[in-house]
Design goal:
single chain, 735 residues, alpha+beta, MutS, DNA mismatch repair protein, Chain A, domain 3, Rossmann fold, SH3 type barrels, five-stranded antiparallel β-sheet, 17% strand
Length: 735
């Protein structure tokens, strides 16, 4: 599934088990013919084994025999032509009968096959010859069998070679960190941060970096004429373009930025280096003219032409004039091309012709060193006199060379030098401004984050104020219900109050639910807005990031087009830009603080983020410190109170931090301490009456009775029911 093209190449190849089975029957893993492949071969090898064992016994007896006479050398024996021979001291070479097989380099040891083993060794040689003939016979039979499948084997071989080639290309791409640029179905070249792999391999042992190349050729600019000083990188630029185009059209990934765009050329022609030949009687200029003739005949709109040192090899004036004509003709064929030159008239023509552009290699005019950066649109100077001055040529000679040139040539060269200096100055200024802009963008991002945090804080404070105001309003409403309920003397009046209480409670519940939904919706909108902003922020290799919805930080280790390789812990994964955000938002950006209001006191329910964590720690430390102070104060007071007591044992008291009391608890305390007065009724004699009877006050803490259950014995129906009061209590405790 991951390699459909490779799978397509292999689908028509059906596995054949007959071939490997037959090969395994004849050959072992080492490629040696098996003894079991032929009955005759088995007999021969069995006889060989016996004869070799007998030969070893006979030879061992011979060694023992001559060992006693002292004619053997220290090594005693050796092997020559697969035969065991005796090592005889040079002084005793005539005392041993046998066949001479050679001697040592200094002729101190002679190797002799003893007569005792001659007969049996001859028999072994005969058997070995028979074994070879039988092995060849078996292999011929196997070859004839496999020959019937030669077409299938040829297909196997072709497919395996293709897979091996694809694998080699993939391994090379991994080694070179190459990628596939955007492909266009037309002639087009737009290289971004292109690297010449050959140059990089050459510079690697020297630990010398390669300057990336940026170049663009399209229908608006088909031909680029590059000028500049020698050893400035003109030829490398030309070769890099040609090499990468050839690699791409050969199916190789290339060493460019993934945003590069490459087209397709039906023809690629090049004139690079000196092609003079004694054999063909060609000079440098003759070979260049021969190639130029071929270029003019074969080039068209889908051709890429690469010419190094365009117009050189002959008289500067005559050669450059011919080059002008060739350039004009190549432009008329609508071909694409890259050319290098030192001639001013070719630079001038490139500035006049449509679809042709000048380019120059950037040069540091201060220390006269090349920077290997291509600048399109500006011709370059050769810096002839500046380089001559640097290497120590006499100023008198340089001045004489100046005077030998006409004024126009000198003026043009000075103009090119001044343009290059201005280009360098603007390039330096551009880098400084780009760095400053990056710093300002980072500062702006920080300020935006602060503004977002402040807006979020104001928003939370506003929400909290609204909640507190709502609680006060609803508290007043329910407080009036409590008072009105206490004033009622009839069950009908109390039921009416309870009915309104239920209506208020329903409205309050709906309002609370609406506030929760609104708060949740606002939070989701703010979160989505924040995440979108974080996703839009730039990301580069080395940045610390985290996946959305995860708190585990990671790092960007590679970028290819719109894919980012993240290293998170021990894992690595490819993701798109909308799947992660900067790791700095891990605490501060997504931290939220939620609060509840109970009894008029706001409690911090949860807090995240560095600031909130620090605040919580400070708060806990402060509470701990206050608790210690309170405990110490309580101990001192206890000591003063118990001073003079008979008991010798000292006691310690712990001071408890009381929780804020709710509105209902305060109301109950007031009613118990001083019962509320009831307004006089029509039947009143003018004396004030309590709003709640003593029995009603004590029933505030009575057991809860379910609605609709039989009333207690002797209960006054006009009095407040336990259930109703418990509902009020439950509401205030919940609220």
């Amino acid at each position: 599934e991951r390699t459909p093209s490779i799978q397509e190449k292999m689908t028509h190849l059906e596995p054949n088990k007959v071939i490997p089975d037959e090969i395994d029957r004849v050959l072992d893993r080492r490629g040696v013919v098996k003894t079991s492949s032929s009955s005759q071969l088995g007999k021969i090898r069995a006889a060989l084994t016996k004869k070799r064992a007998a030969a070893d016994r006979i030879f061992y007896r011979a060694v023992k025999k001559y060992q006693g006479s002292g004619v053997l050398a220290d090594i005693q024996e050796s092997v020559h032509d697969n035969k065991r021979v005796l090592a005889i001291e040079g002084a005793f070479k005539g005392q041993v009968n046998g066949i001479f097989h050679g001697s040592s380099s200094r002729a101190t040891i002679f190797y002799v096959e003893p007569t005792e083993t001659l007969e049996i060794n001859n028999e072994i040689s005969v058997l070995e010859d028979e074994e070879k003939r039988e092995v060849n016979r078996v292999l011929k039979i196997l070859t004839a069998f496999i020959a019937g499948y030669r077409e299938l084997l040829s297909d196997y071989s072709t497919a395996l070679c293709q897979i091996d080639f694809i694998n080699a290309k993939a391994l090379y791409a991994l080694d070179e960190n190459a990628c596939l640029p955007q492909l266009l179905d037309k002639p087009y070249i737009h290289l971004i941060k292109a690297i010449n792999p050959v140059l990089r391999a050459f510079n690697a042992p020297k630990k010398k970096a390669v300057v990336p190349l940026n170049i663009k050729l399209d229908t608006e600019t088909r031909i680029l004429v590059i000028s500049g000083p020698n050893a400035g990188g003109k030829s490398i630029t030309l070769k890099t373009v040609g090499l990468l185009q050839l690699m791409l059209q050969s199916g190789l990934l290339i060493t460019v930025h993934p945003d590069s765009k490459m087209g397709w050329f039906n023809g690629l022609m090049a004139d690079i280096g000196d092609a003079q030949s004694i054999e063909n009687e060609l000079s440098t200029y003759s070979s260049k003219l021969s190639k130029m003739k071929y270029f003019l005949d074969a080039s068209y709109a889908k051709t890429l032409v690469l010419i190094d040192e365009f117009g050189s090899g002959s008289d500067p004036d005559l050669g450059s004039s011919m080059a002008q004509v060739f350039l004009n003709e190549l432009n008329n064929t609508k071909t694409f091309g890259v050319m290098t030159t030192h001639y001013n008239n070719i630079k001038a023509l490139a500035g006049e012709l449509p679809r042709v552009e000048n380019g120059s290699m950037q040069f540091n005019s201060e220390d006269l060193t090349p920077e290997y950066i291509l600048n399109q649109g500006v011709p370059g100077s050769s810096y002839t006199y500046e380089v001559a001055q640097q290497v120590g040529i006499s100023p008198t000679l340089i001045q004489a060379a100046h005077e030998a040139l006409d004024d126009n040539t000198v003026a043009v060269d000075r103009l090119l030098v001044s343009i290059q200096k201005e280009k360098n100055r603007l390039s330096t200024q551009s880098k400084t401004l780009a760095k400053r802009l990056e710093e300002l963008e980072k500062l702006k991002e920080k300020q935006d984050n602060k503004i977002d945090l402040l807006e979020d804080k104001v928003r939370r404070q506003s929400t909290m104020n609204e909640q507190q105001n709502a609680m006060i309003t609803w508290g007043k409403k329910f407080q009036s219900l409590v008072n009105e309920y206490a004033d009622q003397r009839t069950k009908k009046g109390k039921d009416e109050v309870i009915g309104r209480f239920k209506v208020y409670a329903g409205e309050r519940a709906e309002q609370t639910q609406g506030e929760k939904q609104k708060k949740k919706s606002q939070y989701e909108k703010q979160k989505e807005k924040r995440i979108k902003k974080l996703i839009a922020s730039p990301a580069k290799i080395g940045d610390r990031v985290k996946l959305i919805g995860s708190r585990q930080p990671g790092e960007i280790i590679e970028i290819k087009k719109d894919q980012y390789l993240l290293s998170i812990g021990a894992l690595s994964t490819w993701v798109t830009r909308d799947k992660f955000i900067p790791a700095e938002s891990l605490h501060g950006d997504e931290g939220t603080v939620k609060g509840k209001v109970r009894g008029g006191v706001r409690e911090e329910a949860s807090a995240t983020g560095p600031a909130a964590t620090k605040k919580n720690k400070t708060k806990k430390a402060s509470e701990k410190k206050n608790a210690k102070k309170s405990a110490k104060s309580g101990q001192n007071q206890s000591k003063k109170t118990e001073k003079g007591a008979k008991s010798t044992k000292k006691t310690k008291k712990r001071t408890k931090i009381e929780k804020p009391k709710t509105t209902l608890e305060k109301l109950e305390e007031v009613q118990k301490a001083a019962p509320l007065k009831q307004a006089p009724t029509k039947k009143s004699s003018g004396k004030s009456k309590q709003r709640l009877t003593h029995k009603q006050s004590t029933q505030l803490n009575a057991p809860v009775r379910k609605v609709g259950s039989p009333k207690a014995k002797g209960e006054d129906p006009k009095e407040a029911t336990d259930t109703d009061l418990e509902k009020l209590k439950a509401f205030f405790k919940k609220g």
